[in-house]
From TrEMBL:
InterPro entries: AOX (IPR002680), AOX_sf (IPR038659). It holds the Pfam family AOX. Belongs to the alternative oxidase family. Its main location: membrane. The lineage of its organism: Eukaryota, Viridiplantae, Streptophyta, Embryophyta, Tracheophyta. Its EC number is 1.10.3.11. Keywords: Electron transport, Iron, Membrane, Metal-binding, Oxidoreductase, Respiratory chain, Transmembrane, Transmembrane helix, Transport. This is Ubiquinol oxidase. GO terms for cellular component: membrane; mitochondrion; respiratory chain complex; thylakoid.
Length: 354
């Protein structure tokens, strides 16, 4: 019997996240899920009762989980390079594939950072405007590819769509704050940010279609740089920021209205546990920095295939029934087009044998 393990940083997809295709025509990419007994379902339900870790609040410092190290390659004891602990060990080839993917991502990220360092050495708000224009693009790409997969009937991921939209909503408000501060005043800055965003969108679409793991890691690297940039800015100009009135956009986003989407992108937190107080620009940038840390952890969790789940579903007090298979990852799941084709060929070969 195959054993399914869960880590504290990742939880399974809910039943609403995956709907078995109802089409009756032949689909070479669909593999029927394994039949499970009632005892198996009960076991899986118990295993899925996982509590996500939460950050400890601190007014001066945001602690990013130790597992968030996009520029390092964990040893095999931690489940292979770039893999969360307790994950099923990867093959030797897969480990090197992950290393290659991460090396490419780090090289691309470092190259862009060096260019931004030259162009925006002493222009903070324009740099933030460019960063936020770029940072929201991957979530559009992820949603586009996931919608394509739904249309093809390959798989459906409601939780992924919800969380990625909430992430893009959060980054959009970061962008609005930077525009309010005058970060987009120069034509050159707008031109550069928009054209990088267009190239980044199509690049991420291709990357996500081929290897979601690689695309998520690349986004993690980008969010990591954003976190470090804001953290450095706060340390250097914290006293000055405390004297400035807060952004109107920030006050409205962080303290008013429906906070569902604000909680939704923070998959490592329990909903309703983070409610910022915005009194000055120091508080604004502190919360933007905190947001980037949350994005990093969500992108880290996404690198474990099928692990992402809406925090509102994870922490629901409603106990699932014995027939609820929401915590079980169906066999029909596959990672990207390459993996879908591989599983399709394997399934065809097995059918011919039997």
């Amino acid at each position: 019997m195959e054993t399914i393990s869960f880590s504290s940083s990742a939880v399974a997809v809910s039943s609403s996240s995956y709907l078995k295709p109802k089409t009756k025509f032949f689909n070479p990419l669909y593999i029927p899920p394994t039949k499970l007994t009632a005892s198996h379902r009960l076991q899986f339900r118990r295993l899925c009762n996982v509590k996500a870790t939460t950050l400890k609040e601190d007014d001066e410092k945001v602690v990013v989980e130790e597992t968030f190290q996009p520029k390092s390659f964990p040893e095999e004891a931690n489940g292979g390079p770039g893999e969360p602990p307790n994950r099923k060990p990867s093959s030797f080839i897969e480990k090197w594939v992950i290393k290659v993917e991460q090396s490419i991502n780090i090289f691309l990220t470092d190259t862009v950072i060096k260019i931004l360092d030259v162009l925006y050495h002493d222009r903070d708000y324009p740099r933030f405007f460019v960063l936020e224009t770029i940072a929201r693009v991957p979530y559009f790409s992820f949603i586009s590819v996931l919608h394509l997969y739904e249309s093809c009937g390959w798989w459906r991921r409601a939780d992924y769509l919800k969380v990625h939209f909430a992430e893009s909503w959060n980054e959009m408000h970061h962008l609005l704050i930077m525009e309010e501060l005058g970060g987009n005043a120069w034509w050159f800055d707008r031109f550069l940010a928009q054209h990088i965003a267009i190239f980044y969108y199509f690049m991420t679409v291709v990357m996500y279609a081929l290897s979601p793991r690689m695309a998520y890691h690349f986004s993690e690297c980008v969010e990591s740089h954003a976190f470090e940039t804001y953290d450095k800015f706060i340390k250097e100009k914290g006293d000055e920021l405390k004297k400035l009135a807060p952004s109107k956009v920030a006050v409205k986003y962080y303290t008013q209205g429906d906070m569902y989407l604000f909680d939704e992108f923070q998959t490592a937190r329990i909903p309703n546990t983070r409610r910022p107080i915005i009194e000055n620009m120091y508080d604004v940038f502190m919360n933007i920095r905190d947001d980037e840390a949350e994005h990093c952890k969500t992108m880290k969790a996404c690198q474990t295939h099928g692990s992402l789940r809406s925090p509102h579903d994870v922490h629901s007090e409603t106990v699932a029934s014995e027939d609820d298979l929401g915590c079980i990852l169906p066999d029909a799941e596959c990672e990207g087009i390459v993996d879908c084709i591989k599983k399709s060929v394997t399934a065809s070969h097995m059918n011919q044998r039997y």
